[in-house]
Amino acid sequence: METIKKDGENRMKKSVKSLQDDFNGIRTGRASATLFDKVSANYYGTPTPLNQIANISIPEARLIVIQPFDKNALGDIEKAIQASELGLNPNNDGKVIRINIPPLTEERRKDLVKQAKNMAEQAKVAIRNIRRDINDAIKKGDFTEDEKKKSGDDVQKMTDSYIAEVGKLAEAKEKEIMEI
């Protein structure tokens, strides 16, 4: 029974971690190297994450500087950023790529908040589905009624704590997006 609960808890942790990764991909009007976590450039024929072929630095609040380890990769990095869904405009000066992060409009901020809330709701649904899977596995197991009841209560407490964590993450992201 403990292994069933442990497996379920690990799956819940992964759901929260996945949400954090998704939130990192939302542009908030502030420069962040995590924006490029899911961007890959075609480096000598192989899709390679940007952080493996370039140094990404944030010298100012609204400026990102990408300095490739290999100057020949500049064009590929620039194309990858333009092709990404980030909506950023890279400036290539032959040595580094500079990206100015424009401030977000109020309408765009509200759209991003909706997007973040939707992501959080999907994470909550995933956690509830994991709870259902755990409870089903316990019901099918060879346990006494008392053990099943106690386990059900434990699983519910665990579910509530992870859903609360998702709520906190969503609140923090909304606050970050709405900051001017």
Structure description:
- With 180 residues, the chain is α+β, with helices and mostly antiparallel strands.
- The protein is built from five helices and six strands, in the order αββαββαββαα.
- It has helices at 2-24, 50-53, 74-83, 106-140, 145-178, and strands spanning 40-43, 46-49, 54-60, 63-68, 90-92, 97-100.
- The strands form two sheets. A four-stranded antiparallel sheet has the order 3-4-6-5. A two-stranded antiparallel sheet has the order 1-2.
- α1 (2-24) runs parallel beside α5 (145-178) and α4 (106-140) packs antiparallel against α5.
- The N and C termini lie far apart (49 Å).
Distance between the termini: 49 Å
**What overall geometry do the principal axes of the alpha carbons give?**
elongated
Decide which structural class fits the backbone.
Answer: alpha+beta
Which strand-content bin applies to the residues?
A: 15-25%
Number of strands: 6
Q: Helicity range of the residues?
A: 55-70%
In terms of quaternary structure, the protein is single chain
Cross-sheet strand order for the largest sheet = 3-4-6-5
What summary fits the major beta sheet? Answer: 4 strands, antiparallel
Number of helices: 5
Low-confidence stretches: none
CA gyration radius, whole angstroms: 21 Å
Mean pLDDT: 90
H/E topology pattern? HEEHEEHEEHH
